[in-house]
Amino acid sequence: MNTAVHAWWGRMAQPTLQRRSVAYVLFAFGVIWAVLLAYAYWQNERILATEQPLRKFSEALHGALEETPDPEQARVVVRATLRWINERRAQGKRFPPGMDAQLLDAQGRHVYGSVQLARVPASAWEKGEVVRLGGTAYHLHETRGTRWTLRMAEPVRTTGRFLSYNASNLLEYLLLALPFVVLPVWWSVRTGLRPLEQFASALKGRRQGDLAPVDHPVRHRELQPLSEALEGLLAQLRQKLDRERLFVQDAAHEIRTPLAVVGTQAHVLAHAPGAEERERALALLNQAIARASHLAQQLLVLATLDGDARATPRRVDAAQCVRELLAQLAPLAMERGIELSLDAPEQLWAELDEAAFVSIVGNLVDNAIRYGRDGGSLVVSLRGGDAGLELLVRDDGPGIPPAERARVFERFYRVPGNERTGSGLGLAIVQQAAARMRGRVEISEGLAGRGVGFRVGVPTM
């Protein structure tokens, strides 16, 4: 029983569109109620200021009294009128009862009136002031004629009394209309969500790992953006899985060659009859191990750049960073007699993803040294501007044929006819790192009409 209660409570506590829509309707009714109440108060104040109901009533009653010359009859008219109007006020609860009057003849003699009104000064009647009698505030009005002077005192209707009466009165009408608004809204939301529930049920029925396009028909225009977004997401997942599958296959294929060499040369090294054979096997073994290590390192860098996590940019001296990388690669350039030079300012501070920037510079320079010509030149240029950083790496080596330039950024792709060994991942890493930094990489001309150049532009943070 407790489990069922907890499950029911969990479902009720979970927010739903139906309850939210009903809550919005209730909130709208509350706002309407407050606005109507404020409008009624404003209208009441306007009527009191412009139309002056007490003055009109007093003048109408005084006009009837002017046709009554007998004091006793005039007294009866005033008394009956007051009793009638106070009974009506007490029944309706809209206006406070207790309306009072004082009647004087032409000589100013008292004809009718209560004791409390007799204490009101004549000047207060003439000015129409508001006075407090017995703890109650009264509006005063005096109407003079040839026979009678009629003084009317009406209790002031307080703001609290006005709001209390009108609030309950308006609320009654709103509560009467509420079911006729809430029920259609609730039903429209419930029926309107049914196609979405059917769409969700169709997705639930798919097999695990099924990334095929959704074949559930979507007839409603409101659901089409959701269906298109889902199709786009599935397409991205299919592309990502296909790319990862090809990546794993290519990586396995690429790493199999150096591992095979390691196994073969290890066997030769173990059974070599002479020192010369062992030295040759050891040299080939070291080359295979270095190639496998380089390939593993490149794969690790590429996997890191492919990840969703983004490094926090930090302020670095890009020029100094390039100098340090070139210093590390200088021995490799010296082995092949390549002249390595840098064209950059002394300092170039920028907010950068340092790891991605290092990958770009390192792989471009390493590729230029690895695939350049012996005794050649390699120039690295770095500039900063409003658009960001621009890195240019140029060499005078054999270059890349125009027909092959469209494919050099593919993973594991090597230009045919090149005798140098490599992983085929350097330019793929450069492109991925540039994309990670929201930049671009493009092929440009090399040095002195020879070789090839790579221009990388990255915005600074």
Short description:
With 461 residues, the protein is an alpha+beta fold. It is built from 13 helices and twelve strands.
Q: Which word captures the global form?
A: elongated
Give the oligomeric state of the chains in this entry, treating copies of one chain as homo and distinct chains as hetero. Answer: single chain
Rg, Å, rounded: 48 Å
* CATH hierarchy: architecture of the largest domain: 2-Layer Sandwich
Helix content: 55-70%
**Which consecutive residue ranges, at least 5 long each, have pLDDT under 50?**
none
Question: CATH topology of the largest domain, what is it called?
Answer: Heat Shock Protein 90
Averaged pLDDT, please?
A: 81
Q: Give the strand line-up of the largest sheet.
A: 2-1-5-4-3
Beta-strand content: 15-25%
CATH superfamily of the largest domain: Histidine kinase-like ATPase, C-terminal domain
Structure annotation, total helices = 13
The tally of strands reads: 12
Sketch the topology as an H/E string, one letter per element: HHHHEEHHEEEHHHHEHEEHEEHEE
CATH top level of the largest domain is Alpha Beta
- Largest sheet geometry: 5 strands, antiparallel
> In total, how many domains does the architecture comprise?
4
How far is the first residue's CA from the last residue's CA?
59 Å
Structural class, from helix and strand content? alpha+beta
How does this model look, in words?
Strands 2-1-5-4-3 form a five-stranded antiparallel sheet. Strands 7-9-10-12-11 form a five-stranded mixed sheet, with helices on one face. The chain contains 13 helices and twelve strands. The protein folds into four domains: 60 residues, no CATH class; 106 residues; 80 residues, Helix Hairpins, CATH 1.10.287; 149 residues, Histidine kinase-like ATPase, C-terminal domain (Heat Shock Protein 90, 2-Layer Sandwich), CATH 3.30.565. α10 packs parallel to α13 and α12 packs antiparallel against α13. The chain is elongated. InterPro entries: HAMP_dom, HATPase_C_sf, HATPase_dom, His_kinase_dom, HisK_dim/P_dom, HisK_dim/P_sf, Sig_transdc_His_kin-like_C, TCS_sensor_his_kinase. Its main location: membrane. It comes from Ramlibacter cellulosilyticus. It is a multi-pass membrane protein.
